[in-house]
Amino acid sequence: MPTTTQHYDIAIVGGGVIGCSIARELATDHSVVLLEKEQIASGSTGHATGNTSVVTGFHDNSNFAQYCNDFFREYDGTREFSYTERPRVTLIPESMTKDAKQLAAESAANGFETAYLPAEELEENYPGVFNLEKFVGGIEYRDIGWVDPYTYTTTLQKDAEASGAEVRTGVTATGITVEADRVTGVRTKSETIRADVVVAAAGWHTRKLLEECVELPIYPFRWQAVDLDPGRELGDDYPMGLDIVDGLYWRGEHNGLLHVGGGEYKVRNPGSI
Ligand SMILES: Cc1cc2nc3c(=O)[nH]c(=O)nc-3n(C[C@H](O)[C@H](O)[C@H](O)COP(=O)(O)OP(=O)(O)OC[C@H]3O[C@@H](n4cnc5c(N)ncnc54)[C@H](O)[C@@H]3O)c2cc1C
Description:
alpha/beta, FAD/NAD(P)-binding domain, 2 domains, 7-stranded mixed beta sheet, elongated
C-alpha cells in the first residue's frame, strides 16, 4: 500500500526539456519535486535535433522570436551547454517562389536577418553545398541556431536543483490523485506525493498518465533523425538546410557528422511503440 509523504507546491511528471524548464522557472519561489521514470532527457528530448528555429515559425511575432534568441545567447554564458548560431537555408521550388519572397520580406521587416536568394546567389554564397536541381532559390535565415538537447536540458535541471527543486530519476508516476474534483498529488508504486499543482510534462505519455482523470485527444507522431558520415569536412561555415519538397533538414555536428532529420508520421496506435 503506497504511503503518503511530503507535501510540495508543485509536482512535475517528466524530466524532458519541458519538465526541466518548468522546474527551473518555478523552483525559485515554490517547493518543487520532479519525477522522471528513466533519466533526464531520456525521452524525445534526448533524441531531438535541437534546432531553435524560432524565427522561421514566429517571424510575425518578432518580440517572441527575439526573446528566444536572446535567451539562448545569454544562457549559453553558463558554459554548461553551447548555443551554436548558424545560417539556415530553406530551399524553394519554382511553385513557391512568390510566397517565399513574401515570407522573407515580412521576416526582414520584423527586424530579422532574412533574405530570399536566387539560385545563383546561393551557389555564390555556399559553393557546392546545395544540389539546386529542383530549386530556384532559397530563404536564408541568419538569426537561427541549435543547442545540444541533452546538455541544454541537464543545465536546466542543475539550475532547478540549485534553486531547491528535488529531481528524482527512476521514479514512475502511476497516476494523479484527485479528491473532491481537485488534483491533490501524484501516485508512484511506493508512495503518494501530495502537491497543490501537478504539471503533466510526460511528453507523448501524457495521455496515459492522465487517463484516469481526463481523456486527452492527442496522438504521438514520430520523427526521424540520423547522423551520417559526410565524407568530407563540413567546416564551421557549413549552413543548416531544409528541403521542403522532400521534408528533410540537415546540419553539421561539432564532431564532423552530418545530422539529417525529417519524415514524420502520426502514430494512431501508441500501444505499438
Ligand atoms: C528526432 C527528433 C528531432 C527533433 N528535433 C527537434 C528540433 O530540432 N527542435 C525542436 O524544437 N524540437 C525537436 N523535436 C521535438 C522535441 O524533441 C520535443 O518537442 C520535446 O523534446 C518534447 O519535450 P517533452 O519534455 O515534452 O517530452 P520528453 O522529452 O518526451 O519528456 C517526457 C519525459 O517524461 C518521462 N515520463 C513519461 N511518463 C512518465 C511517468 N509516468 N512518470 C515519470 N516520468 C515519465 C519520459 O521518460 C520522458 O523523459 C524533435 C524530436 C525528435 C524525436
